[in-house]
């Protein structure tokens, strides 16, 4: 994997990641394909919207259908018919949030599956092995996602464990990697404590990774604190490596994080919101289930190239969601992913043209204005 920094505008960065499976234009948003599918979307639809990479989930795929099973079927790309790069997370966050009776130790995490209660042990080595079997082009170290709030002592202990696991993950990557140009990212932890974040970033750089993620955010701390952590974390990360903010976020989160030097994002928000009747637009959120849309002939976005955005009336989308029709979830998911990719493309262009701050101000003004046009 190779990262090329094309231009900077303030802290905002325009780059390109070359992988064996194709290029990733940054800033990039990665649609989440938890169980080898971006919910309610065909893979080609996701690609046509402009997504260069998708995310798969180690925890869910190790439980069902199983990493060895996916490997026998040709890896994730062939299994899900996605022809681009895939990033897999380590599974650690889901182990702690979804599984039953998870028990942390120096070795790893013992847990019971939330599906059937079967017992598993996830170690740094096993996580990397699973991600290798899945065929991920970018793999993540196993870490402990420090809960929020955490005392300084708790955050320090958790971060140090994650750094030891990061070193073991790096060794496992060397043992399992096939030498085909795939990458391993480290994850900065330390909760909301600046000196711990700096210590974590330094420890990871001493180990050496192809990219660096900022983890442990979007866990309840709020946007202001999240951005404050980024303010003092991204400046101590290498300039010549991609920076990935995990599990974030709203459109405003993306713009503000790009302004602070982040290159990559993933989040279930656009797909989950679409399934529940919320659309993201240039002028803020639209709750399509609201009665005010029942007779609204306007599309969600007449200027979008996405058919879901410009072909269907809000009244029709309102009807589908009120009736619980599958098509409603499919269309709003399609629209939301289109909007997220349009937003990333607009930010890339603004950075290239050295007008990111003007774009940022205009975006915030539009969002504040809201979706208030008369029907």
Describe the structure.
By secondary structure, the chain is α/β, with parallel strands linked by helices. The chain folds into two domains: 2-267, Alpha-Beta Barrel (TIM Barrel); 274-369, no CATH class. The protein contains 15 helices and 16 strands. The chain has an eight-stranded parallel beta sheet with strand order 4-14-13-12-11-10-6-5. It has a three-stranded antiparallel beta sheet with strand order 1-2-3. 50% of the residues are buried. The model has no long low-confidence stretch (mean pLDDT 96).
Number of strands: 16
Name of the CATH first level of the largest domain = Alpha Beta
Which fold name corresponds to the CATH topology of the largest domain?
Answer: TIM Barrel
Strand ordering within the main sheet: 4-14-13-12-11-10-6-5
**Mind telling me which CATH architecture of the largest domain this is?**
Alpha-Beta Barrel
Separation, N- and C-terminal Cα atoms: 50 Å
Strand count, sense and barrel status of the largest sheet are: 8 strands, parallel
Could you say which structural class the secondary elements and strand pairing correspond to?
alpha/beta
Radius of gyration: 20 Å
What is the mean predicted local confidence, pLDDT? 96
CATH superfamily of the largest domain: Queuine tRNA-ribosyltransferase-like
Strand proportion, as a percent range, falls in 15-25%
The residue ranges in which pLDDT falls below 50 over 5 or more consecutive positions are: none
Large-scale geometry:
globular
By DSSP (H or I, 4+ residues per run), the number of helices equals: 15
Helix percentage range? 40-55%
Provide the number of structural domains.
2
